[in-house]
Amino acid sequence: MLAIESWPLFLFPLLPFLLYHNPLLAFSLKNCTIVYSENADNLWVTCKEHELAALPDDIPRNATSLDLSSNQIVNITGTDLRCLSKLISLQVQYNLISHIDDGAFADLVELRLLDMDANKLINLTDNMFQGLSKLVTLSLYNNQISCISPVAFQALVSIQYLALGSNHLHQIADIVPIFKLPNLNELLLGYNKLTSFQSDDLPFNVSNLKVLQLDFNPLRKFSIKKDIFPHLQSLAFCKCSCDIEWDVTNKTFLMSLTDLSFSGSSVSFEAYIAMLHTADSLQKLSLFFLKEWIDEGLINIACRIPSLKTLYVTVSRLGTIDDNLLRSCSQLTELTLSGNSLSELSEHSLRSMTQLRFLYLDTNQLSKLPLAVRGLSTLEVLDLMSNFISELDCLDFVNLTRLTKLDLKHNHISKLQGCLFQNLNNLKVLNIGENPVFTLDNTFKVNLRNLEYLNLQNNGHLVFMQGDFRNLSSLCVLDLESNTYYQLYDGAFEGLDNLQTLSVSLGNYKKEHFRGLPHLENLTLHLTFNWNQNSSQKNYEPPFSNLPNLKKLVLKVYDKYQEDISPDLLKGLKFLEYFMAEKFFMKSLHPDTFKYTPRLKGLQITHSDLSDLSPELFWPIPNLKALDLSNNKFRSLDFLARANLPALSWLKLSDNLLSVINVTVLQSLTALTYLDLIDNPLTCECSNSGFNQWVQSNSQTQVVNGHQYPCAFPTQIHQIEDNQLLFGRLPAETQHVGGDLRYRAVSHLSKTLKKLYYLMFRQISDNRN
Ligand SMILES: *[C@@H]1O[C@H](CO)[C@@H](O)[C@H](O)[C@H]1NC(C)=O
Ligand SMILES: *[C@@H]1O[C@H](CO)[C@@H](O)[C@H](O)[C@H]1NC(C)=O
Ligand SMILES: *[C@@H]1O[C@H](CO)[C@@H](O)[C@H](O)[C@H]1NC(C)=O
Ligand SMILES: *[C@@H]1O[C@H](CO)[C@@H](O)[C@H](O)[C@H]1NC(C)=O
Ligand SMILES: *[C@@H]1O[C@H](CO)[C@@H](O)[C@H](O)[C@H]1NC(C)=O
Ligand SMILES: *[C@@H]1O[C@H](CO)[C@@H](O)[C@H](O)[C@H]1NC(C)=O
Ligand SMILES: *[C@@H]1O[C@H](CO)[C@@H](O)[C@H](O)[C@H]1NC(C)=O
Ligand SMILES: *[C@@H]1O[C@H](CO)[C@@H](O)[C@H](O)[C@H]1NC(C)=O
Ligand SMILES: *[C@@H]1O[C@H](CO)[C@@H](O)[C@H](O)[C@H]1NC(C)=O
Ligand SMILES: *[C@@H]1O[C@H](CO)[C@@H](O)[C@H](O)[C@H]1NC(C)=O
Ligand SMILES: CC(=O)N[C@H]1CO[C@H](CO)[C@@H](O)[C@@H]1O
């Protein structure tokens, strides 16, 4: 067989005559796919990104979730959603909907979520939402809504969350009925054109609202003169372009308010002070884009509210924190200073914070751990991710003995040492990923007995010696994936008695490396070398025999294919349930490969140049439910006919060379409900008509992304322009092909081309023979 990459170039000019759009992959749904779900009660249908101008007419009536997002639907008519009485979630965001018939949703009695963001709605009419009595979440963000009928939301008796942000609402008086919805908790009104929010415009006695967002409105007045929001907990005003008059006549009116966020220096300092004065119960304050007023002392004023526990100051360009900025914030338990270009915290800047438990300093420009942090002995979580820290000092964490989570990901740390974490006896999560660490010293040989998660992803060329992790007896997850690879010595993982998940990039493999991992269930190996397990050698033992409890094994190979994989690769893995191999096997698998893994449920062998498998391969694994053989070179499914896979329900064979599908084979897979044949050069010659009929007539198996299409010979020849090819989009009416070969246009042009040449080559050589 000719390797795909080496097809002769002389075939190229023929191409335009051969490509055409063949919506051949027929099946029960024309424009949608049923998403595979292990839970039989779910029927998730997606028609996302299909350039639909209207709702499809073949949505299964018992669909529980329907995604129509990112199409070009212009309206929803009274019949579009008929009978979908089991639907729980409906997504139609990113369409062009400007009109919805009255009662269009009336049958959707179970609907809980309706997302209509990014459409063109202008009016919300009287009966638009009729029947949606169980709807909990309605999102209408980013439409052009300017007019809402007073009764539009009347039917929504269960609604808890309503997003009307980014619309054209002008007056609060126009949406009064919304405030009276009995169960409404959250109302999002950001990015509208509201110029005032005044209780005088709200003719009701009480609203149950808990969360109100008014950010990015040109609000000039906020006035509450009666106790109509007794439950309001969270209020957001952000980036007003003008000053605001704040008038809350009695502090008790905002007694429930615990969470306030605001931003923008166009609001006067005085207005912010006034806001803070009426928020006596405040627990959390978030400040954005407020450098000017922070420099004026806004934070210290806020911190005088005794209940304030959480302060969030971000994108406020704070280059340094001096000794005064947070002076009166002694009661804080959580402080976030993320994303501020901080390069320095003065030594005593955090001195007052004797109760601080969470400190987020991520996404700044710190080059070392600030001295100010060293004294925070109450700290439990410290996030220093995405800074420029290059060195750590033995004293940095010495007093942070209560720390449970430390994030140092994405810094410039090159060296770790034994003294660093020695006092962190309570640490559970440690992330040092994305650093250039090249030496570990004795970093993990200290008393980190509570550590459960350790990430050392993408560091320098690390070497792990015997016993390096010996004291990490609680570790469950260890991530040693890398762009290059790490070097292991025998016994490197010794002592990891509780490790369940290990992911590692290796430069070579020795079974001895994986000693002492009795509880390992998940193993992912990224291999950068040739699998050199030579089973003909004396003393050969199966490579994973030290890992008897493995349930999931993933083998990924960079660049190279592996040859001569021994039939007892998986010997000893009697509990294995999932096996995934990418570029690991080349061209074939030994029929005994799965003899040792009777519990296998999921199998994925991709990018392996496979063109055939022997049916015997599958005989030892009758429980197999999901099989993915995509990105190979199968030209026939015949190997499945005698494979005996009574439980197989999910089969993916995309990106292969299948041209004719034998229905007898599909019929032998009695449990099959999902079949993916995308990106195969399926022909529509009459030899495939059996498959077409099967696709149309069988009610059990869905063929992904297929369309009904008669197997008839084309009548018209279309030449296809190169540019159409490049974008992978061909005119829908283009149906012709040379000879009786027909191909489906796909977006991955190069792959399709290769297959095309391949088949052409076959045809030419067949003709010669
Ligand atoms: C949906 O209906 C079809 C046909 O009536 C039936 O075969 C299938 O089992 C149903 N699915 C669910 C999830 O109820
Ligand atoms: C809905 O849109 C379709 C397709 O553009 C159009 O034919 C139909 O008249 C529209 N129906 C209503 C009620 O607007
Ligand atoms: C929206 O409602 C207004 C007032 O009821 C009406 O004048 C206008 O024509 C409606 N627009 C659309 C697109 O239905
Ligand atoms: C508000 O409460 C008062 C006194 O309980 C009552 O008389 C009035 O009708 C209520 N107003 C509204 C709009 O519900
Ligand atoms: C504020 O309201 C409370 C309770 O409604 C009332 O007792 C108190 O007198 C009011 N205070 C002022 C200054 O009006
Ligand atoms: C740690 O705490 C001890 C006792 O409070 C103190 O003497 C020492 O200076 C602290 N070390 C650092 C590095 O802050
Ligand atoms: C590391 O573990 C060994 C054996 O379990 C123990 O003797 C030793 O004290 C531990 N080291 C530390 C620093 O906890
Ligand atoms: C194994 O990995 C899968 C995800 O790939 C995860 O869902 C599962 O929880 C892991 N199992 C254990 C024991 O960590
Ligand atoms: C495997 O080992 C046998 C015996 O030592 C040797 O003859 C053979 O060449 C080896 N094969 C490979 C691929 O290294
Ligand atoms: C289809 O597969 C069955 C079972 O393997 C075989 O008997 C039959 O000959 C095949 N049909 C074609 C047309 O290849
Ligand atoms: C809304 C709808 O049904 N759109 C398309 C679904 O697929 C068929 C067959 O390709 C098209 O003819 C429809 O226009």
TrEMBL record:
GO biological process, one term: inflammatory response
A molecular-function term among this protein's GO annotations: transmembrane signaling receptor activity
Keywords, alphabetical: Glycoprotein, Immunity, Inflammatory response, Innate immunity, Leucine-rich repeat, Receptor, Repeat, Signal
InterPro entries: Leu-rich_rpt, Leu-rich_rpt_typical-subtyp, LRR_dom_sf, SLRP, Toll-like_receptor
Keyword Repeat: yes
Signal peptide: 1-26
Pfam family for this entry, one: LRR_8
SMART domains, A to Z: LRR_SD22 (SM00365), LRR_TYP (SM00369)
Entry GO terms, CC: extracellular space; membrane
Family: Belongs to the Toll-like receptor family.
Protein's name in the database: Toll-like receptor 13-3
Native source species: Lateolabrax maculatus (Spotted sea bass)
Gene: tlr13-3
